[in-house]
Design a protein that fits this description.
With 277 residues, this protein is α+β, with helices and mostly antiparallel strands. It is 60% helix and 16% strand. It folds into 2 domains: 185 residues, Beta Polymerase, domain 2 (2-Layer Sandwich); 74 residues, no CATH class. A hairpin with a 2-residue loop joins strand 4 and strand 5.
């Protein structure tokens, strides 16, 4: 058997995880920037350790030479969401991406494992560009709710502790916990619309506050200082009320003010003279 250069073997998988995490996090940012409900809570990724790979090869009775052909989750991405309904939404977005080819789907939500494990898995092919040219690697993408992820983390720890032979008393408790997690996801789904509305309102408010702050800075460069101070004081007063309608009206007004001063600057061909009067 040839010597396995583990660093060289795993490097493209590390690159794939880094790139996909960056892309999925930008996907999350895009939802937020454009004021749309974001189904992604957070994204994590990992490359299996050499120990984990060797253990899996041993369990599956696979020769080391077949590691890349037989082990589909050397690279793994986990996308965590709040609601079960978000899972299919995320999976659909991933399926439509031109840089990812879905080769297999494992739906452990509709068909949960005997242990109680629930998650949605997508095995995909992803191309990384290295110094030696393009290289296609398999990546397993897991999509699950926060509740599912909590249960799966505990189950994984117990599997590791007991080397796959979880005692009956712990297995019963784990099964009960899985049922509780399923019930929790159902309850959370019942308040999904309210949560979505609250999150969208928060995103809109955050973006308006950011835009107002930027506009005030722009006005300070071309507008008398006392005028900008009045605008800033009014902004802080409205902000403290927590009234989104008032904030929206102020946002619209300050944009008109900024456009008016900008037009005056363009007409004169020079910055307006700033004074303290």
């Amino acid at each position: 058997m040839d010597i396995v250069m583990w660093h060289r073997l795993l490097y493209p998988y590390e690159q794939a995880v880094d790139e996909l995490m960056l892309k999925f996090n930008y996907m999350k940012k895009e939802y937020q920037v454009f004021g749309r409900y974001c189904p992604i809570e957070h994204v994590i990724g990992r490359v299996k350790s050499i120990t984990s790979i060797l253990d899996k090869l041993q369990r599956k009775n696979v020769p080391l030479e077949r590691v890349e052909q037989e082990i589909e989750d050397i690279a793994g991405i986990r996308i965590i969401c709040q609601f079960v309904e978000d899972i299919s939404r995320i999976a659909d977005v991933i399926s439509r991406r031109s840089d990812i080819e879905v080769v297999e789907i494992k739906d452990y939500i509709r068909n949960k494992k005997q242990s109680g494990y629930r998650s949605f898995h997508m095995v995909v092919k992803y191309v990384v560009n290295s110094l030696d040219g393009p290289r296609t690697v398999n990546v397993e993408i897991q999509i699950r709710t926060m509740a599912m992820d909590f249960w799966a983390t505990i189950e994984h720890s117990l599997q590791y502790k007991y080397k796959g032979e979880i005692p009956e008393h712990a297995d019963v408790r784990l099964s009960n916990a899985a049922n509780a997690v399923s019930a929790l996801d159902k309850v959370m789904s019942s308040v999904r619309e309210d949560v979505m509305d609250a999150q969208l309102s928060s995103q809109i408010r955050n973006q308006m506050v950011k835009d107002i702050a930027v506009t005030i800075e722009r006005l300070y460069r071309i507008t008398p200082k006392r005028e900008v101070e009045k605008i800033q004081d009014e902004f802080y007063q409205i902000y403290q009320t927590g009234n989104l309608d008032l904030l929206t009206r102020f946002y619209e007004q300050i944009q008109l003010i900024a456009e008016t001063y900008k037009a005056q600057v363009n007409e004169r061909g020079e910055g307006l003279k700033k004074t303290d009067d």
